[in-house]
């Protein structure tokens, strides 16, 4: 139930039914500030069309363009957010990867020293 409600939340952010602090938008992707940030900069980046891409493990050859686009947008957001010292891009995949929302999304985090291993 939690996973479904979070996925619907992303849908409502996309349709602008729920307010979000949008930091980037184009015809393929939307990025907004995380409501529970884990770093001074914590942005969520999602594709506008789910197209079966609920998790990275479901990626097919047809998803190559959107996956590449998302990584390029993550780079643009890093620049926009002035994260020239570095940042982390995270994709949680599946239950053991701590994925909580089954709409593929990237976390872009920075503004502090990240630790390794992440946990």
Q: State the share of residues found in helices, binned by percent.
A: 25-40%
Class, according to the CATH hierarchy? Answer: Alpha Beta
How many strands appear in the DSSP assignment?
5
The CATH topology annotation reads as HIT family, subunit A
Total count of helical runs of at least 4 residues: 2
**What number of structural domains do the residues give?**
1
Poorly predicted parts: none
**Major beta sheet summary:** 5 strands, antiparallel
Classified in CATH, the superfamily is HIT-like
The CATH architecture: 2-Layer Sandwich
Secondary-structure element order, N to C: HEEEHEE
Assign the structural class, choosing from mainly alpha, mainly beta, alpha/beta, alpha+beta, or little secondary structure: alpha+beta
Give the quaternary arrangement of the chains.
single chain
From the alpha carbons, calculate the radius of gyration and give it in angstroms: 14 Å
Strand order of the largest sheet: 1-2-3-5-4
The share of residues in extended strands comes to: 15-25%
Bulk shape: globular
Integer average pLDDT:
92
């Amino acid at each position: 139930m939690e996973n479904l409600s979070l996925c619907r939340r992303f849908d409502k952010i996309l349709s602008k039914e729920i307010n979000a602090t949008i930091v980037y938008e184009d015809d393929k992707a939307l990025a907004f500030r995380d409501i529970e940030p884990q770093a001074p900069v914590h942005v969520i980046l999602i594709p506008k069309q789910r197209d079966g891409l609920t998790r990275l493990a479901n990626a097919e050859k047809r998803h190559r363009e959107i996956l590449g686009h998302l990584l390029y947008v993550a780079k643009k957001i890093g620049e926009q957010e002035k994260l020239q010292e570095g940042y982390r891009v995270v994709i949680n995949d599946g239950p053991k990867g701590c994925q909580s929302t089954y709409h593929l999304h990237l976390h872009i985090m920075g503004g502090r020293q990240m630790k390794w291993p992440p946990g």
